[in-house]
Specification:
2 domains; mainly alpha; elongated
Length: 143
């Protein structure tokens, strides 16, 4: 059984809509798959939390807290993704640049090297690295 099928069965199990033979197959899969074990535990916790009656006076605070946490997580995810892209671009251009320096230069290579130097000194790279610094500041504040 693959994880996708196991997670579908876990969902049905939580909703009490599973077939008895599915329980046995799921049990075997769960013994060897920590990812699905964690998935099942998270759903069980979620079900418990969802069944707790809410105090209506605290709902605005709860809503604001949840929205703030979601915003923090999205900012962190965005910054991590942006950093990966920035580093990948930076390393790619560094490799190209170093390769261009190491090879005896023809006219085409000299032109390429000059173009590459123009790209590296362009406003785009300055912007990327200034964004990177801003993201690192935000990450420090979130932590």
């Amino acid at each position: 059984m693959n994880c996708k099928k196991a997670q579908m069965i876990i969902n049905r199990l939580i909703d009490n809509e599973h077939q008895p033979e599915e329980s046995f197959q799921l049990e075997i899969h769960l013994k060897s798959c920590q990812k699905c074990q964690q998935y099942q535990q998270n759903l069980i916790r979620l079900q418990k939390v969802a069944s707790i009656p809410l105090n209506e006076e605290r709902i605005p605070d709860l809503k604001n807290t949840i929205l703030r946490k979601i915003e923090e997580q999205e900012t962190l995810k965005m910054s991590n993704g942006f950093l990966k892209i920035a580093w990948t671009l930076g390393l790619t251009f560094l490799i190209i640049f170093l390769t261009a320096l190491a090879i005896p230069q023809t006219k085409a290579q000299t032109d390429f090297k000059e173009s590459l130097n123009e790209i590296i000194s362009s406003d785009y790279f300055k912007t990327v690295f200034s964004y990177q610094q801003e993201i690192e500041k935000l990450e420090g504040e979130v932590k």
